[in-house]
Amino acid sequence: MKYARMGSEMRTPLARARGLGSAKDGASHWWVQRLTAAALVVLGLWFVCLVLSLLHADYASARAALARPWNAVLMIAFTAAMFWHAQLGLQVVIEDYVHTRWREIALLVLVKFLAVLGALACALAVLRVALGS
Amino acid sequence: MAHMERPISPHLQVYRWQIQMVTSILHRATGVALSFGTLLVAAALLALAAGEADFATLRAFCANPFGQLLLLGWSWALFYHLCNGIRHLLQDIGMGFRIEQFVRSSWLSVIGSVVLTVLVWGYVLMNGVAG
């Protein structure tokens, strides 16, 4: 795999076996940020189109639109990717600019908790609309 | 030795402003703004699930001037982060690293985001918003 080969000359055999690097969690943060970014390119454009298609919609037709299976699935995918990507991005900003360690940790934990809560709340809201309760 | 005045690395104010710098700063700024924008998406979905009254409140909020301004800023931030995000993904696979390409793609991100924002709001204004 080209991706795995790229950095191989730069690391010691032990570092390569551990696969972690200076960030202590390897390339996973970087990789998931790109993965969610790629997903959000498609899902974001879909979201804008959906919102524009609902400009004239009253409550019942907006609900009916979201309740359609594809829209419900894509909306849950969009909000999950959105909160995940936002959390990863905010993590980097906090790590860069918050220099008091306990504040940094507290903010990182807070952002993670809020992101998970947000994603769960959105998923539940979509399910309630889709399942009609 | 430890307390010697050491040269510090140059910071923002000593650089001549250039477009690559602007796009980099804007990418982070719009990312943070959009993180707060996620709350609007969540609020809309929760209102839709909660019932007609909550949905009407959300509609009214989005329709007043402050809400419209918020939506305008939110949509531009989204389109900017989208355009520049695609630019970054292409750079991540090794494309566009020559200086002139770098400058050109920076301008493309900025101009593309404005064009998309104008297109969307042009569509909204032409079609009118339901009351």
What does this structure look like?
The complex is a heterodimer of chains A (133) and B (131). With 133 residues, chain A is mainly alpha-helical. Chain A has a single domain, classed as 3 helical TM bundles of succinate and fumarate reductases (Up-down Bundle), CATH 1.20.1300. Chain A has 6 helices and no strands. The termini of chain A are far apart. The mean pLDDT of chain A is 90. Chain B has 131 residues and is mostly helical. Helix content of chain B is 77%, strand content 0%. The A-B interface holds A 34, 37-38, 40-41, 44-45, 47-48, 52, 55-59, 62-63, 66, 75, 79, 82-83, 86, 89-90, 93, 118, 121-122, 124-126, 128-129 and B 28, 31-32, 34-35, 38-39, 41-42, 45-46, 48-49, 52, 55-56, 75, 78, 82, 85-86, 88-89, 92, 120, 123-124, 127-130.
Summarize the structure.
The complex is a heterodimer of chains A (133) and B (131). Chain A is mainly α and 133 residues long.
List the helices and strands and how they pair.
The complex is a heterodimer of chains A (133) and B (131).
Chain A: H1 2-6, H2 13-18, H3 28-53, H4 59-67, H5 69-97, H6 101-131
Helix pairs in contact in A: 3-5, 4-6, 5-6
Chain B: H1 19-50, H2 52-63, H3 65-92, H4 99-127
Helix pairs in contact in B: 1-2, 1-3, 1-4, 2-3, 3-4
